[in-house]
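It is worth pausing here to work through a concrete case rather than discussing structure prediction in the abstract. The textbook approach is simple: state the sequence, then state the predicted structure, then interpret. We follow exactly that order.
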Amino acid sequence: MSAPAGTPAAIVQRINTEMRALVTDPAFSKKLMELGLVTQPMSTTELVAFFKSEEAKAAQLIRQSGAVID
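Step two, the predicted structure:
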């Protein structure tokens, strides 16, 4: 779940709180696992760090692959 840049912090926090409650619900988590999805509840700070880490990994893979935009 994400929100547009500039979304007020109170709204971002509310979304995070509600999503964390949802993905930590055992029945909901079980259903997601049945679909092959794994939940990993994170704070907004942890999520930003995760996205930055994944972006760095993807950039490295792209450089190593030699892929170019045509």
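Step three, interpretation. The mean pLDDT is 91. The helical segments are 9-23, 26-34, 44-65.
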